[in-house]
Amino acid sequence: MKKNELFFMILVIACILSAVLYTIGGALQDVDYHDLSKLPLTEQQDEYGRMQSRKSAGEKIQLVSAILIFISFLGIMITSLTFATQNDEKRALKAEQAKARR
Hey, which of 10, 11, 14, 28 would disulfide with 75, CB 3.0 to 4.6 Å? Predict the structure, then answer.
C-alpha cells in the first residue's frame, strides 16, 4: 500500500470512528426523566444531578466528535482531489508520450 493510500485510509477510519463517538455521545445524554418521579424526593435530587452530568458529558463528546468529523471529511475531500489531479496529470503525460511515439 502506498503512503498516500495509507493516509487516505487513516482519514476514512478517523471519520468513521468520530461518527461512532458522536452516536455514543448522543446515547450518553439520552436522559429519561420519567422514572425520576417514582423515586423519593431526596433521591430525585441526586439522580437529577447525575443525569445533568451525563447530559453535559454527552454534549461535550458530541461537540468534539463533530469537529473531528468535519476535519476528517475535509481531509478526505482534499486528499481525494489531490489524488485525482495527480492521476489526471499521469494520464495526460502517458497520452502525450503515446502521441509522440506515433
Answer: 11
With beta carbons less than 8 A apart as the criterion, state whether 35 and 93 touch: no
pLDDT per position as a tens digit, 41-90? 888 888 888 888 888 999 999 999 999 999 999 999 999 999 889 889 99
Locate 52 and state its grid cell. Answer: 445533568
Separation in Å, CA 9 to CA 1, 13, 23: 10, 6, 21
Location of C-alpha cell 470512528: 17
Q: pTM of the entire structure? A: 0.76
Measure the CA–CA gap between 38 and 59, rounded to whole angstroms.
Answer: 26
